[in-house]
Fold:
Amino acid sequence: MNNTSLVKAEHGFTLPELVVTLAVLAIIVTIATPLIFEQLARMEASRIKNQLESILSIAKAESYIRRQNLLVCLSDIGGRCHRDSDLKILLFVDVNDNKHFDDQTDLLLNEQYLNPKYSKLSLRVGARRHYTKFWGDSGRPRGHFGHIKYCPTSDYNNSKYQISFNQVGIIKHKPNDIHPTDCT
Structure:
């Protein structure tokens, strides 16, 4: 018997096979990456739309059920209401009537983290307010109607819309192609 026939052959990739495999994987990743980011941006736009519509509907119902005025605002990390904050959205009873959420004083009814990665949110309510008020006698935002604008900040995100709420409390999703958002 020959000694070479007793040695078991070792299997593995040759250098050319490894190079070709890595090149094919690099091409697949290059093609797939933008599509993955576009899908993530679409999912974010849909999630935030649902959260905004939900909290505005809750505000309308809770203000009427509780017979209390409730405030909704976009908030920063410190819980401070601001028209262009977009970390979270707050629904609260403003006990001290200062138009801001105070952790030790006000009653927080709902808090939802928005934390967009592919967009920017802004609340636009009459008289340059940083909040909207739902009145306890009717559950409507009379005098405090407006919209929350969703504007993309990424090339992967093509979603532009606004969630509007009118004086009688009707909440509508308005895509950019139907109602231009003027996102820049």
